[in-house]
Design a protein that fits this description.
The protein is an alpha/beta fold and 232 residues long. The chain has eight helices and eleven strands. Helix 1 crosses helix 2 and helix 1 packs parallel to helix 8. The N and C termini lie close together (9 Å). Belongs to the peptidase C56 family. HSP31-like subfamily.
Amino acid sequence: MTKVLMVVSAADHWTLNDGTPHPTGFWAEELVTPYSIFTDAGWDVDVATPGGKAPVVDKASLDDSAGDAGTLAAVKMKLEKLQPVLSQPLNLADVNAADYDLVFYPGGHGPMEDLAVDETSERILTERMENNAPVALLCHAPAAVLATENAPGGSPFVGRKMTGFSNDEERAGGLADKAPWLLEDRLVALGAEYQKAPEPWASYVTVDGNLYTGQNPSSSRELAQRLVKDLA
């Protein structure tokens, strides 16, 4: 059976450039849609967070503006069913990522706060890249690769094709001017070969060997389905 480790942010806020906390967490669609696609394919999925802390859903991801009515209703229903899993996640520090066929990071602004500087996540990502083992990051979750920028020998993500939440999308969401940094800018500065969809909010997925990335919430389904196709 294919085994997936889903690494979820434990942050409940994102510290803005004026020091104020912006309530956030994980983006509902980016967690429940891939989780459902993976489990429907017969895959076994474990959820882990830094410190084993129960993750918090970003309330904005459940707002009427977060998607069409049908999709949003399905996301809310699936999220409710996942509460027993999310209430007792594994502690990321206790996990052996080598036991998993895929390590998957859903987004939301939460990863900008904790996973971007998390040493355990850094080690997992570095080892996955060194071993050419599949890893996938969605929307804001590519922020996690920034923790590898000072790795001995340089970040393993330098020169790799990646996408992630774009500057245009952050501006459209109203947080760009308040952000301490923007994901697209930091990925470019890291040395990744950043790519994005021609238009904001369109589904967009990149694949570079073992590295899979999705740009935004709309990319959740396409990214998960591509992983199932490639790894099944």
